[in-house]
Amino acid sequence: MFHLKILFSSRDAVPHSGARLGTRPSSGRITARLTAPPRRSMSPIKAPAKVLFRRGSMSFSVRMRRRAAGLSLAALVAAMAGRAEAQTSDPADMPAAAATDNPETGTEVVVTGSYLRNVRQEDRASPILSVTADDIARTGVNSLADITRYIPQNVGSAGGIQDLAKGGGADSRDTRSANLRGLGAGATLVLLNGRRVVPIDGFVNLNSLTPEIAIARVETVLDGASSTYGADAVAGVFNVITDTRFKGVKVNGQYTHIADTPAFNVQAMVGVGNDTIHSVTSVAYRNIDRLQNGDRRVTNFFNPSSGSGANPGSFVLYARPRAADGGDVIINGNNYSTLYDSFRNAAGQLSVVDPDCGSAATQSRYVPAANSPGFGLGACQFSFQAQNPIRPASQSVLVHNDTRVDIAPGHTLFAEIALYHQDSQRYGVPSFAQNRNGPRPPIVPAANPLNPFGVDVGFVGRAIGSQGFAGIEYKVQRDQVDQRHVVVGAEGKVAGTWRYTTNFTWSRGEVNSIDKDTDMRLFQAALNGFGGPNCNNRFNGPGSGAAAGTGNCLFLSPFAKDNLTQDPSLIFNIQTAETATTIREFLIGEAVVNGTLIELGGRPLDLAVGAQYRQERQIGRYSDLYQNGFGAFNGPFRDTDLRREVKSLFAEANIAPVDSLNINAAARYEDYGNFDTIAPKISANWRIVPQLAVRASASKAFQAPAIANSSDALISTNVANIIDPLDGSLVFRSLQQYGNPGLQPQKADVFNVGATLLPVPGASLSIDYWHYKYKSQIQLQNGQAVINADPNGPAVIRDANGVAQSVIVTSYNAPSGTATAGIDVAGRYDVEFGALRVGLRDNLSVLLTYDVDTGTTVYDGVGTRNNYQTSPLTAAAAPRYRNVAGVDFSLEDHAFSLDWRYVSSVRDDYQQVLGAPEVARIGAWSVFDAQYNFRFGDGGRFELGVGMTNIFDKEPPTAIYTGYLSSVADPYGRQTYVRASARF
């Protein structure tokens, strides 16, 4: 299982019985590491300790140059208990993930969060979580990103599971982010072997980095790290470190059964080389079936959309309906001619709902107006919910290679290549809502033989609803993602203790999306009788030989009565292809030198200095329908090509004035052209007595505006539910987001204070208080707040009838910003009963403060969903308690773990006015997971694992509008998996 391991070591302390393998000597270092419980060794141990095992009893003796006290604290993630291995696969030394020489073996151990190679990771004060490849193999996760659900410090993720309200990210492809402390995906910097990866989704997709089989470990810094890495490392750093030392062949495969959405993946890794050159190549294929809202009870509910989002829609009568014989129009026994006589307005118009609204066939709901005679007047409510996805179907291939070549004594060239390709399919409701009607909606002419009113009528609604259209149940959006990450570099010794590292990184991602929207010109042509793909209809009208409703030219009916009987080729006029391409690219050059500057009182003052140049580029390309404004739902968009340069200088120093105290200071300067910033940090680690250590750090971190946010371009168009304060209607409206060249970076004050206690052998306890406070936080204007402030202002685009069509929003620097603080408590107790080893563990994160800045008001968001009408998009759901606890058993080649995951309830404030009384709560999420592993064969080279996630098939607690809250729970239900692996 993943164990949050806090290594507290002392030069003078005596090793206690709870020591874990891989503990390194230090002066009071606190390091968190996720690792599997010890079992018998299956591979050589390369560590500053010689470890001898006795099979069966699992006892061992440890001889070290310096005696070390190893301390295992709380487990974060439940996984299969496996063999205990020191970290033998040391990755290439990287400037952003510096390494420390091991004097006994000559190998180096990567240190995330430092550029110093002469300082051990266990001497640093920032808490770091580390999970190894074996830990990942002993869980039911099907991807690297799934690990985040077991980390209490990670508060939800963007991407992946759909959240209709906000924060769900792209539900059209397989993508997930890290989101430490709930400060947003952009506040957690994701690295691959210590280097930046392009954030193609607006964040780095964790599933796109490297095959899980290639991972040596994943290290997460739970502290501000901008002093080392620059922008975006406000909440911390997520660093994926690959295995560059592997030799041989390794394969594995996993099948995960989830009702209605099974998944499987297969992986392989090959390592070859000699004393001069070594290369490791890994490849993975992953397949996930789609999961629809209709497949889960919690999401299969009536989620009403009316007005332009309804189907059946409504019709505007511009004249008195009349039958072909000149008499009254009577439909389903209701007289629409006399209805018009009684209720038309002064302009001679009357809006009526589709005559079949409310029928079982249309799966709609008729809501009569107060003065309605029981038909015609009112609203037609339609639910798009069941046909939209929880997650899309996807197929992905990921290839990774690390190669190192020793070109001279003490000098090495290294290269890294990562290639990622994904195809995904989003199955959604057959047509989008009709948001842009112009001065008048599309007209169904009296000449259309399918028009039962006998006069011209305007149509408002979806072209197709849940009833389908001639057997067409879904609209399928297809995304193709291609990501390339290439690194070349060199490292070596300069003189004495001084070393250098220099590298160049090219990281590029491209997303090509093929979607379908209704082209309002083609839709109108079909209403006029010029529909179908073979009708000679042009952008300026019918072409030669085209005649309404004749030959290849067809009439389209938007009336529900005709949905299933019309010519299927008319889908041409309802689903028009449109393409969007987004390209993001990083080009980075970096150089670092580090070593011992001087000795003060016989103690080294270690120093690292370096510089980085980063060129960023973002390109957006859109097809005509996205750009011309004739799409019913999507757009408008504009082609963009944005660039900027970032220049950085940084330095870090470390000294241990006495054996029990370690002090570290770092600072980084970054220049973006239109603004610059400095991020300093100081930290200290003090071992008071062998059983107690304390630590503290304070820093200033920052997050630069995204390149698009800093432009003056139209950078995106989205849709959101907007309540028009003029009439109280709640409908989907487009939000047009423009950049803001005046944006400044958002900054944060960060500090952490903690202590670790070894009360008795085999037991450990750790506690940390952490605090983040933003200043000038970058917020995106809330569309609802914009229209509330000035309903008829320049930021609200209305049509000729006064109906709000779009709201213009932009980003700005809020007067203050989010402030959050809390306490992390972790504990573990290990005991042995002969050959049986039992471990109890718990990891609790308590949220004390989550102050949300709306731009005009700061409110306490602890224990709430934080989805008020005016809540910023950066606000996350904020449960007060998140906890992972478990028990592990290991006996010979067998291991079993049971875990309990808990998230406390939150107030459901969806679309409420700030300060309104509570109307609902989203209940607590409490689930159990179990895993069993068995190793067999020579040296334990074969392994079989089975497990179950959410054993009792618990549904997520109910949330308003979305059905569930993706940052708190998931709707998958019980997941059963089987995994097999082999090493040769």
TrEMBL record:
Protein name: TonB-dependent receptor
Domain TonB-dependent receptor plug, chain residue ranges per copy: 122-237
Membership in a protein family: Belongs to the TonB-dependent receptor family.
Residue ranges occupied by any TonB-dependent receptor-like beta-barrel domain in the UniProt entry: 498-951
Keywords: Cell outer membrane, Membrane, Receptor, TonB box
Cross-referenced InterPro entries: Beta-barrel_TonB (IPR000531), Beta-barrel_TonB_sf (IPR036942), Plug_dom (IPR012910), Plug_dom_sf (IPR037066)
Cell membrane as UniProt keyword: no
Disordered, as annotated region: 86-105
Primary location: membrane
Annotated compartments: Cell outer membrane
Extent of Low complexity compositional bias: 86-103
Superkingdom: Bacteria
